Every structure is written in C-alpha cells, then in structure tokens.
Amino acid sequence: MKFxxxxxxxIALIFFxxxxxxxxxxxxxxxxxxxxxxxxxxxxxxxxxxSEFEPREKVxxxxxxxxxxxxxxxxxxxxxxxxNYFQNQRRILCKWNQQDLxxxxxxxxxxxxxxxxxNDNPFVLDVTLAERAYCDSENGSV
Length: 142
What we know:
Elements: H1 2-15, E1 26-29, E2 32-34, E3 46-48, E4 53-54, H2 60-73, H3 75-81, H4 90-99, H5 104-117, H6 122-125, H7 129-135
Antiparallel strand pairs: 1-2, 1-3, 3-4
C-alpha cells in the first residue's frame, strides 16, 4: 500500500498538473531551462512552475493512457489515497488522449511491458476504450 501511495503522489506531482503557457514561469527543454516562452518548436518543451508540470505535447497521450490503465486496475487504492485523484484530472487526460494518439513507439513499449506483466495496456491498443470508459458525453467529458 505504501508503494501505491508513493506512486500516486509521484505521478500526480510530476505529470498531471496543467500549466497554461501564459502561467509557466519556467519552460525547459533538456538540457537548458529557459525563463521565457520559446518562439518556435513550443511542442518540444515541457512547462513548469514551482508547483506544476506539463509534459511535452508528443507524450501527453502516452501519459493519459498510462493513468487510465493505472486507475482502472488500482481504482480502490487510488481513491483510498485521494477520492478525487482521478476525477480532478479526467477531463484533461481525455483531451490529451484525443490529441495524441498512440504511435508505434508507445505500442511497442506496451508489448515490451506485456512480456513482463502478462498483458498490454488496452488503452494503447484500443484508441476508443478511454472514450467509452471515461470520456463520453454522459460523464461530462470533453
């Protein structure tokens, strides 16, 4: 249980807080942090403030599908830590899932993990699953 709590807190703190480009106090593209918004290649940058982080555009869907899977499998543990953990980020995760569909790298990563875990992430293999499970209009999604 301690592992689950640490994992949930780490994921929440590192990946899932939304930061608009205008709010970002620091924008970083490894290895050089910048304090101003870049004029080109904005999608190659992650954005952060002292308390929030937004991943690069090309990995937002990957992150959304990972958390959909995690929440589906470990819902009771997640809600035991924070009842609103998933609901507070569901809409943005649905948006990220729609905007960044699985690419070959994510699909291959899911297959590689399946060799150890015994199953693929179904949210990677079926692009409609998140929409049907968490993002439909009946649930007030995007």
